[in-house]
Amino acid sequence: MTSAASSSSRDLTVLTASDVDTVLAKMDLSLAVAGQAQVFAAYSNKDKKDEAPGVASIQLPLRHVLQTPAQSMLFMPARVPGTTAIKIVSVPKGGSDGLPGTTLVLDEVSGKVRAVINARRLTAVRNAAGSVLSMKILDPEGKKTPQNMVVFGSGAQADSHVRAFVAAYPSIKTVTVVARRSTPRSEALVASLAKAFPAVKVAQGVASFSAGTAEAGFDLSATVHAADIVCTMTSSEQALYGAKDIKAGSHHCLIGSYKPHMREVEDELIQRAGVVLVDSREACGHEAGELQNVTDDDLVEIGEVINSEHGAEAKVNSAGDVNVFKSVGLGVQDVAISALIVQEAERLGLGTIVPNYD
């Protein structure tokens, strides 16, 4: 093996978790946002264009799940123009230190595996890039200068969302991480974010909206009311905050729920939005608990806004007094972020080459 990122078509590049962390630390966030924009646009245009006879530009087969006594193993293949990949994620059935993930990127000409990437952090990164994109495309003139951000959750998704939004919007002055209880993980997240962004006031709030309880000295209603951006990244089955508490003009990114019985916000919030921005009309209609009572006419895909289809941006912005973006995640997003990580690793000379792998 050699430590060089330039390789021939017969070589294999391996990017470890440490390699990926280095790439992410050095990478301009705008590259990730632009990459997500391209695949969302292509996804919403998937029925209109084939790259070649019998070859769809966007391919997103159903994921396959294999069960073991200790794990549920998810296999998720996808293709965007020029790149084919498969992400494999193991979901432990007991306690764990996270979700192990690996992405294989294939060379479309030779059909050989081009790279093996540790993908443990990449799902959160691509979701955060998509959330930033959802706010930016609804504000094409860049007039919004958010100051207060609230995130529900204390895992990798929360970390990536705060880092992405603070990088994209330097106007942010406060970030509140809301957790059901204070844990070493939530405390470590707050400390890490505070160290990364010394000009931003980062604090933890402990509260359970469903139980109507909050830690002494923390007012959830007032905190949410002050928020310009709210991001939810939980597996909650009950609303996390009150729709009556939010202010007009705020932007809400709902990332956590992915099954019909899950929900992170009240119906009233969806009603206040009027039209909901989604990553996929079909996927969200089937999987998002918050949208089970919403018709397809009240859902606009983020790719449709990017493609400027049917006045999509105006339809979202004129429908209510808040914006809501709901994402259940698409495999093509994984392809886009993986291709970008390989590209940046090659540029930086990172990765381990396995010569003559095939």
Automatic annotation (TrEMBL):
Signal peptide span: none
Gene3D superfamilies hit by this protein: NAD(P)-binding Rossmann-like Domain, ornithine cyclodeaminase, domain 1
GO cellular component, one term: cytoplasm
Domain of life: Eukaryota
Pfam family, one: OCD_Mu_crystall
InterPro entries: NAD(P)-bd_dom_sf, ODC_Mu_crystall, ODC_N
Family: Belongs to the ornithine cyclodeaminase/mu-crystallin family.
Protein name in UniProt: Ornithine cyclodeaminase
Top-level taxonomy: Eukaryota, Fungi, Dikarya, Basidiomycota, Agaricomycotina
